[in-house]
Automatic annotation (TrEMBL):
Domain UspA per the UniProt entry, residue ranges: 1-134, 154-288
Highest taxon above the source species: Bacteria
Name recorded for this polypeptide: Universal stress protein
Organism: Fischerella muscicola CCMEE 5323
Family matches, as InterPro entries: Rossmann-like_a/b/a_fold, Universal_stress_UspA, UspA
Length: 293
């Protein structure tokens, strides 16, 4: 799975708690974990500069909470001053990170359009997968619960599927992860195809349920060849609502998703199924940015 992981925290997202769970994260296959905090530039003077006091405070805070790590796990702490997205991209490149973990507050579309989204911005500037965790979820777990969550971050994935280029790319990425993993960190996945219900009788469905089921059966057979347990389901209704309902009933670790929408940030926020899912999902979302062609 993901051996070199970058965990970004602003101390309000709960992700700094993960410094206590390095041993559990190691059981999810991680060999190198970098904890990163970005400090805003000091802008009270004429020229913006690094806020050395806050950098030292954050460095101390993270260092003190990192427990004794397994000998086979390398733990690094990075505290830098500047724009968060630029820092994340730079540190990810330095450590050759294979996964970026970050928090995402539940916000309205209007709020995102006004202030932007770190997640959406990153998705346009990197091809590294992003694992987005809801801060309220991480913050409310007991230590016992968080220990188990960290061990099984990727054990069971829900894959929304609709036979688009983005959906097929997602399946290939998950298949590749299963092929490359050194142990069975990823064990199961569920393919769910939601046929959008227009509610209008005069508008026929382009894909019939049995056609969708046949397509999913073929993909299931392909994924089972890489030692995955696979379930399939066809639903009808509103896509995001049905995917979240399927997640509730399927006992999954995360929802995996990709997006074919590449363009302006506002376009991603408005039209992307992935963006809407991130807005409403309490489940972790594993996002695969599309390859830049």
């Amino acid at each position: 799975m993901f051996q070199r992981v970058l965990i970004c925290t602003d101390f309000s997202d709960g992700l700094h708690r993960l410094t206590h769970f390095v041993s559990s994260l190691a059981l999810a296959g991680m060999k190198q974990i970098v904890f990163l905090h970005a400090v805003p530039l000091w802008e009270k003077g004429i020229i913006p500069r690094a806020d050395t006091e806050k950098i030292e405070q954050a460095q101390t805070r993270l260092t003190e909470t990192v427990g004794e790590s397994p000998t086979d796990v390398e733990v690094k702490i990075e505290v830098q001053s500047g724009k968060p997205v630029e820092i994340i991209l730079k540190v990810a490149q330095t450590y050759q990170s294979q996964l970026i973990i970050l928090g995402s507050q539940s916000r309205s579309l209007l709020t995102e359009k006004l202030v932007g989204s770190t997640m959406a911005d990153l998705s346009h500037k990197t091809t590294i997968p992003l694992l987005v965790l809801r801060p309220q979820l991480i913050s409310t777990y007991t230590s016992e619960e968080l220990t188990l969550r960290c061990q099984h971050l990727f054990r069971s994935l829900l894959l929304p599927y609709n036979d688009t280029q983005a959906a097929n790319y997602l399946v290939q990425q998950v298949k590749q992860l299963a092929q490359q993993q050194s142990d069975r960190y990823l064990q199961q996945c569920k393919l769910c195809w939601v046929l959008e219900d227009t509610g209008r009788r005069e508008v026929p469905k382009k894909i019939l349920p049995q056609q969708a089921g046949q397509t999913l059966s073929q993909i299931k057979a392909d994924l089972e060849r890489v030692n995955l347990q696979v379930e399939t389901e066809v639903r009808e209704g509103h896509c995001v609502t049905q995917i979240l309902e399927a997640a509730t009933m399927a006992d999954i670790s995360a929802i995996a998703v990709s997006s074919g929408t590449i363009g302006k940030l506002q376009q991603w926020l408005v039209s992307s199924f992935a963006a809407e899912l991130l807005r409403y999902s309490w489940y972790p979302v594993l996002f695969f940015p599309p390859q830049r062609g």
